[in-house]
Write a structure and sequence with these properties.
single chain; 770 residues; alpha+beta; five-stranded antiparallel beta sheet; 26 helices; 33 strands
Length: 770
């Protein structure tokens, strides 16, 4: 009994101890749960969400870039980023299979895929970006066929430039992350980019959807689009002629050009050649770049650097680094927009600015002021020569511009005086960057007033004809526009509108007048003198002449004084600035060639024909009405000039000067054949086909002559022109509605395109009668 009572007492005590222990345990557990759920609840919820919520980025679509007529110059299309989720790879065998397939399909290093696939704590490893749809479909099929869930495709965008090289130094390009890297793409990156969106989803430990899933989408905000002032047709003309001329004249340091609306500051075209394809910005397009790279690889400069390193492996590594650095230097050179980034000595084109200063101050008048040029002018005891060694003799102010006489302009500069010259230079905007909406603009390099005012007068003398200082092409184009537009210095700009993703206009750029620089009278006078530079038979810019369009201009040939060799100037820049029409200026075209490798390097010879060719293309396109002189109107039928053997732009200049149009076949720099042949009589406005490559002669030259007998003269003309024949007319209609009665060559005969087909109201072609 006693033992029983004792055992029961023990059990009770054990039960009490057990109860107390369970109670304490539950108390600790409850306290811990309180700590976790109430006190530290926010922290743990955050950790859980960070593990369960997987965000997937939705890339915003980058805005388009349009020309002024809404032609797409840059747009974005859907591509894919291929990723793998190592945490979801089943085993090593699956990883091997994935690496084998993706390395071959995407041309990616297999070992790199393996290395990324072994990061088992990661759910997102990028294998390749910018994968096109076709490859993406192959990858999806592979993953589906093999039940692989660890390969993912993330939607992205890729930038495309449908016109290739066109306008590339203005547009720029984007990098792999869709950010603007150069040009407008960089300058307006925030406007074009938009804001990426994302989808946030609940995932379990195996990356599957959870039973009570959480999905939330944050919609992307697509970028705005840009409408440029650039006109694709005008841009194409500028680039075509610039590219041909760079090859013609073996230009060593690229050529550049600007077409500008002088009254608004809008840039209608801007180009540098050679340039690049923004679809492949790292591909070198300049043939000279390849030569420079080869020369560097063999250069003493490189060998001297490598000679400092004794270890073969380190030397090889250093050689690779130096060659890569040189290659990157060539990349940056071809991406550079020469029109805004490279200051140069403007040469005689700047005489337009000096002349405007003088006329505006009243220190000269077009007819009343006269200067004597013996072939030189003495400044500070030193002779400074004229380009014409025997001199121009006694000439008037306007003739000093027409003949581009340096001695006369040194005298004109002296009459202006250093202080006035400095003031006008500043008012023309030449001591600061223009502020154009493009990245990388440089400003000019000019004397301070104290240096310009030196008693010797040398700095003022050389500045008066555009030497010993530097400005950029865009600064000069803006200043010359002010010279001819009534005296207003305009703010140059490239973007005219910004559009939202729905196409609505959200911002418009309005033309901005910075200030008035010269009087309207001064402006009209200089523009009128510029016409003499082009239209007079003995003028320096006559190769820019286009019948009916009253082209005005100014030639320029400047010395690169900071690039002398053994104390001698060996490198020059040839340029020409043209306006149209001179009696009511609308457009300006500035072209320059940096270091042409030719015997004759004058702007009048090299650059003037190029501007003339561009003006012949774009004046009719812009709707500028021709204003023919009586002489031009009297020449209804003209003779086709002989241009075979000439450089392309010299030949074009002769063709256009005679009132004819031209069509070029081939990409050569010299004309090897022409149709019709020289001395053929042709109606004004007919086409002359110029062949620059041998194969051009065999491509679509022979064509069947259509039958136009029985048609009205207008029907016959259109039919023949559509078949690429020229037309000549004989006889007169006797009654309204008379029809063509004869033609030569006859219908059905084979003739070469551009052949002149004569049509007549008579029964027989007069010129064919015996």
């Amino acid at each position: 009994m006693a033992l029983n009572r004792q055992g029961n007492s023990m059990k009770k005590r054990m039960n009490i101890v057990l109860f107390i222990m369970v109670f304490i345990g539950f108390g600790i557990l409850i306290a811990r749960l309180y700590q976790i759920q109430i006190v530290d609840g926010e922290m743990y919820r955050g950790k859980a969400l960070s593990q369960q919520l997987r965000p997937t980025q939705i890339t915003a679509k980058r805005g388009n870039i349009y020309d002024r007529n809404r032609k797409i110059l840059a747009s974005s299309a859907t591509v894919w980023t291929v990723t793998i989720s190592p945490a979801e790879v089943k085993d090593a065998a699956e990883l091997e299979k994935i690496a084998d397939f993706l390395s071959e399909t995407l041309d990616v290093d297999r070992e790199n895929i393996i290395a990324r696939g072994k990061k088992v704590g990661s759910y997102y490893e990028v294998i390749k970006k910018k994968v096109e749809d076709e490859k993406a479909r192959e990858i999806l099929k592979f993953a589906s066929d093999n039940s692989i869930g660890s390969i993912n495709l993330v939607e992205d965008t890729k930038r495309y430039y449908p016109y290739g090289n066109l306008c590339s130094t203005v547009l720029g390009f984007t990098d792999d992350d869709n950010n603007g890297a150069y040009g407008l793409e960089s300058y307006y990156n925030k406007v074009l980019s938009g804001t990426d969106g994302m989808v946030v989803s609940n995932k379990n430990a195996k990356s599957g959807d959870m039973p009570f899933s959480y999905d939330k989408m944050f919609e992307p905000q697509n970028g705005n689009s840009l409408v440029l002032t650039i006109d694709e047709v005008i841009q194409h003309s500028l680039e075509k002629h610039l590219e041909t001329a760079v090859m013609e004249h073996n230009v060593q340091n690229r050529g550049t050009g600007i077409v500008m609306d002088v009254n608004t500051g809008a840039i209608l075209a801007m180009a540098t050649k050679p340039d690049f394809d923004p679809n492949e910005p790292s591909k070198l397009c300049d043939p000279l770049a390849g030569i420079r790279i080869e020369e560097y690889a063999k250069s003493e400069e490189l060998q001297n650097e490598l000679a400092k390193i004794s270890d073969p492996e380190e030397r090889a590594k250093k050689e690779k680094e130096l060659k890569q650095a040189f290659l990157e230097k060539e990349w940056f050179a071809q991406w550079r927009n020469k029109a805004i980034s490279d200051p140069y000595e403007p040469g005689s084109v700047f005489k337009l600015v000096t002349a405007s200063m003088s006329l505006d101050l009243g220190t000269a008048s077009p007819e009343g002021s006269r200067y004597f040029c013996p072939g030189y002018h003495v400044v500070a005891g030193r002779r400074k020569s004229c380009w014409k060694r025997e001199g121009h003799g006694d000439i008037a102010f306007w003739e000093a511009i027409k003949y581009s006489c340096n001695p006369a302009f040194m005298m004109i500069g002296a009459s202006i005086g250093a202080e006035n010259f400095y003031d006008y230079f500043d008012r023309f905007g030449l001591r600061e960057a223009t502020g154009i909406d493009l990245p990388g603009e440089s400003d000019g390099i000019f004397y301070d007033l104290k240096t310009l005012s030196k008693e010797s007068g040398e700095e003022l003398a050389s500045s008066s004809f555009g030497q010993t200082f530097k400005i950029t092409p865009i600064q000069l184009a803006t200043a010359v526009s002010a010279v001819v537009n009534g005296g207003k210095l305009m703010q140059p700009y490239v973007v005219s509108q910004q559009l939202d993703s729905e196409g609505n206009v959200v911002k418009t750029t309005k033309p901005q007048v910075k200030r008035s620089v010269i009087t309207e009278q001064t402006s009209r006078t200089v523009a009128g003198i510029m016409e003499h530079v082009v239209c007079d038979e003995d003028a320096s810019g006559k190769k820019a002449y286009v019948p009916g369009y009253r082209i005005g201009g100014k030639t320029g040939t400047s010395e690169k004084l900071d690039a002398k060799e053994d104390g001698e100037v060996t490198k020059r820049i040839a340029s020409f600035a043209g306006i149209a029409p001179s009696n009511d200026p609308q457009i300006l075209c500035l072209v320059l060639f940096d270091e042409p490798y030719m015997t004759n390097i004058y702007g009048s010879v090299l650059a003037a024909p190029v501007v003339g060719s561009i003006m012949a293309d774009i004046c009719p396109y812009l709707g500028i009405e021709p204003q023919y002189t009586e002489k031009e109107l009297s020449e209804k039928e003209v003779e086709c000039p002989y241009v075979e053997g000439q450089l392309v732009h010299d030949g074009i200049s002769e063709i256009v000067k005679n009132g004819l149009n031209y069509k070029i076949s081939g990409n050569g720099t010299r004309i090897i054949r022409q149709l019709p042949p020289a001395h053929s009589k042709m109606p004004k406005g007919s086409d002359v086909r110029l062949y620059t490559e041998p194969q051009g002669e065999d491509q679509g030259v022979l064509t069947e002559v259509p039958d136009v007998v029985g048609m009205t003269v207008e029907q016959a003309r259109r039919t023949l022109l559509n078949s690429q024949f020229n037309v000549n007319y004989e006889g007169k209609a006797q009654f309204e509605g008379d029809r063509i009665k004869s033609q030569s060559p006859k219908a059905g005969e084979m003739a070469k395109t551009s052949t002149v087909v004569t049509i007549s109201y008579n029964d027989e072609i007069e010129s064919k009668k015996p």
